[in-house]
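Listing 4. Sequential folding, example run.
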Amino acid sequence: MRTFPSRLRFWTALLVLVYWSAIHIGPAAAGLAPSRVSGVTQIATTRDADMVVVQRALENKVVAQKLRDYGVSPDDTKLKLATMSDQDLHTLATASKGLPSGGDGAGALITILVIIILVIVILKLMNKEVIVR
């Protein structure tokens, strides 16, 4: 018992063949997108670069909380940064480069947990037994 007549099968096969051939023959147009200026860059001097580094360090939750604990408001901090000398600002920026900019480590903890779960799932799929003591 045939579901399609032979003429319909022939034309369907021919249509699919032409369609697939057109897809594979078409030229590939891949490449890098050209870069564009996204905005005006505010960093023109080393002072501006140091200011950006210090401001990112001040966005850290731990640093902001410690400053609040000592009674320093964010407005006072910005005012003091604006009046600092170039040398003092550079020293502060150099000292704050080791701090994470805005994060508190939760992302790293989640990544480690996901890796551990992935390893356990792979071991289970390989029929290996996971024993935690």
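-- end of first protein; second protein begins --
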Amino acid sequence: MNIGIDMDGVLTDIQGFNLKHAPAFFRKKYARDVVDESPYDIRDVFDCTEEEFITYWKKHLIKYAIMEPAQKDARRIVHALRKDGHKIFIISKRVFTCREDFLGKLMRTIVRNWLWRNRIRHTEIVFCDNDIPDSKKTACLEKNIDVMVDDEIVNIEAIAPVAKVICFDASYNRGCEGENIMRVKNWEEVYTLIKYMAP
């Protein structure tokens, strides 16, 4: 099978990273505390402005992109899936990766290096435009993806009509249900589910 795998929130724990680093940042810089831990976007977590959101990520993006480790068992399970004969497509909407300038090239290089350093081997990386809601759906169609592992509701709902979606459980996607959508809590469950689905 052709398996699509998202990065932020699936291969990495972006919510965990933000809950670790953002509270001190927003408390110190803006005297603001967590409003709601469950949303995906820290603008909602801290009820912050776009400018405050950009300031936070200017300080933390490179640290997150380079240093955040892979989720528990991600490398082992991706290796097992490849060993079972599946093709692995990293399909990501990582910010800036679709830009054609120096920043875009830098971010694409960081992604490739992160995957190499974390020993997550793959068939291909597909960078999708973060500003286009259904860009991952287009990528799934172009790469003939059978099953996509993702965590973000907008992506899951866009992909579900064209491919099976494994929703990687997080507080911000608990209400996401529907035809072709299956939920898992960890990478071990991803493997079990794909093994069951494989022809």
